[in-house]
Design a protein that fits this description.
heterodimer; A: about 325 residues; Rossmann fold; 2 domains; B: alpha/beta; 9-stranded mixed sheet; two-stranded antiparallel sheet; about 25% helix; globular
Chain lengths: ~325, ~270
């Protein structure tokens, strides 16, 4: 049978469905409709109820398994499960999330299926080519596939999430999965600080750079992030200076983000950093140097000392929201 | 405990401000190359493991044209013991599928001479930025492969305990060896090449293999062995200059910013 159809790999995060899955279903549904092909989904380590939601968000056929070995991400076992589903469904294109787990799985899957692989894809054309950032986002690479099966990881926030349509018709069946031996073993998980918003899926991000001046300067950045319900980001300069942990780093060496709003406080906008955030829909730059690259590219740029301006912006936002100004 | 480690490195453009030729390919004339910056962390981690485990070896492995021996020299100056370059016309134009297949074959050849315990990669390269070759090499070898490793807590000749940086925290993962890992920057702080290392690098002679030396058929390497190719590159649309807020008092500027954000439904 010729490979046909689109397969979305729905990866749970600590047992919970991830919003990235809805974006994959959004992208997958559009491709399936354009090609008049079915949209499949595989849910390793999920429940029947979660499988039902995948149908209601656009999948025509879902294979799921609750096998306990798939509760936490395991490269080898998740690959086995997705390969088992791919064998049954014989899809032409396989879409995975752009997370660490998604990319890890995509690497193994591409080799097992002898498939071309494109990571961090931000556009998929019905004809089959995809676009992804390259050379630190300075170029866009248009990738063509020649393998019968194509595997891709999709950048978070690049596609609109599929809406849930209650009662939508589709089939959800349990995947027969008997894991073979694996030499990768999940030992334990330790969470980041509670209440932190992950950069990857954040709609709003407030970031600080060299201009923040020190660890104390990040208080203003965090206050603004809190007022906006935003994640906290940082430039390499701030991370390398030890002002904020590496997991907050946005840019070539850190995370790539596409929020609706990116507020850059005291970030000059070196190529390193722009590589990670230049696809933000809107950029607000706050900087004393009106000529720096970030100020030149920003949707809104404010020539100001961030230490003076940011607390006033926080107070203004709280005032508008009717929240009393905290001391 | 003596461990044999392979570290994979790539020679990549030092600057990412690349220009395109009329056919949509990056211009290569006059471009300076150096070790991919993310590979510096991989090299450093390999050398640190060697230093903690007497009798260990670190072999650097690169794939590219003959000139890429310069990147192997750089790894020697940072403490690697030996270098292997896979080169030749057959490997040209490979995607990550073909490249990882070739690297896996080279690692198999190295493992035939002495047991290999661990292969270390950087997070990604700074040019294509795919970040998948390490995971794909592990898959070809049917070894465990762990991406986004921020710490190797322990390692012996049987197993390694790894800290994997996930989006929401740290997964601790135990892998049986041999295995491949891709490191992130937080794993260490790379050293500066030593004078002794630089002397050794000058004198180093590297092993060179072609795809056929590795037992690969022409259709398994380079462009023929690929599943994808970059048809063309384009420059991203330039962001226009936006609204500039300046000149008012700090309070006026703050109010104008918040007004604009509300007007544009951004908050």
């Amino acid at each position: 049978m010729n490979p046909q159809g689109i397969l979305v790999v729905a990866l749970n995060q600590r047992g919970q469905a991830s919003p990235a899955t809805w974006e994959l279903l959004g992208a997958g549904r559009a491709l399936a409709d354009a090609a008049k092909q079915p949209l499949f989904a595989v849910l390793p380590g999920g429940t029947a109820e979660q499988a039902r939601e995948l149908v209601e968000r656009g999948a025509d056929r879902v294979l799921w398994t609750t096998h306990p070995s798939l509760k936490e991400f395991n490269d080898e076992l998740h690959t086995q499960a997705v390969c088992a589903a791919a064998q049954q469904l014989s899809p032409a294109r396989i879409l995975l999330p752009g997370s660490v787990a998604g990319r890890s799985l995509a690497c193994r899957l591409a080799v097992k299926l002898n498939a071309g692989l494109a990571t961090d894809v931000s556009e998929i054309s019905p004809s089959g080519t995809v676009k992804r950032g390259s050379f630190g986002g300075n170029l866009i690479a248009e990738v063509e596939f020649k393998s019968p099966i194509q595997v891709m990881t999709v950048q978070a926030m690049a596609f609109p999430p599929a809406e849930r349509q209650a009662g939508r018709a589709g089939e959800a069946a349990e995947l027969a999965f008997a894991p073979a031996a694996a030499r990768t073993e999940f030992v334990s998980f330790s969470a980041e600080e509670a209440g932190e918003i992950d950069l990857g899926g954040a709609e709003r991000i407030v970031s600080g750079g060299r201009g923040v001046g020190g660890p104390d300067g990040f208080k203003a950045v965090r206050d603004l992030a809190h007022a906006l319900g935003a994640a906290v980001g940082a430039s390499r300069a701030a991370v390398d200076s030890g002002w904020i942990p590496y997991r907050h780093q946005v840019g070539l060496t850190g995370r790539t983000v596409r929020p609706k709003l990116y507020v850059a406080c005291g970030i000059s906008g070196q190529i390193q950093h722009l590589a990670g955030m230049s696809n933000a829909a809107n950029i607000v730059a706050i900087n004393t140097d009106p000529e720096c690259p970030m100020m030149q590219q920003a949707t809104i740029s404010v020539v100001a000392d961030m230490f003076e301006l940011v607390p006033l912006v926080v107070a203004e936002i709280r005032k508008r929201k009717g929240v009393p100004v905290a001391a | 405990m003596a461990l044999n480690i392979v570290v994979c490195v790539k020679n990549t453009p030092s600057s990412l401000s690349v220009e395109l030729d009329p056919s949509g390919q990056p211009k290569t004339a006059g471009v300076l190359y150096a070790i991919n910056p993310f590979d510096e962390y991989a090299v450093e981690e390999a050398v640190r493991i060697k230093e903690k485990n007497p009798g260990s070896t670190v072999t650097a492995l690169a794939l590219g044209p003959d000139a890429d021996q310069s990147v192997l020299r750089e790894t020697i100056s940072r403490g690697c013991d030996a270098g292997v370059l896979v080169t030749g016309a057959e490997i040209a134009g490979g995607d990550t599928l073909a490249t990882s297949r070739v690297l896996a074959a080279a690692i198999r050849k190295l493992a035939a001479a002495q047991p290999i315990h661990l292969v270390i990669f950087g997070k990604s390269t700074n040019d294509s930025g795919a970040g998948s070759v390490g995971g794909q090499v592990a898959a070809w070898l049917d070894w465990p492969g762990v991406l986004s490793v921020k710490k190797i807590e322990s390692i012996d000749d049987q197993a390694a305990l790894l800290w994997r940086m996930m989006e929401d925290g740290i997964d601790k993962v135990k892998v049986g060896l041999p295995a491949a890992v891709c490191t992130v920057k937080e794993i260490n702080e790379p050293r500066i090449p030593s004078l002794k290392g630089k002397m050794a690098a000058k004198k180093a002679v590297f092993t060179k293999w072609t795809a056929s030396d590795l037992g690969l058929k022409p259709e398994e390497a380079g462009a023929p062995g690929s599943g994808a190719r970059v048809a063309r590159y384009t420059a991203p649309a330039k962001r226009g200059t936006g609204l500039r807020i300046a000149g008012g008092s700090a309070a006026q500027n703050a109010a104008q910013l918040v007004d604009t954000l509300i007007e544009r439904k951004l908050i």
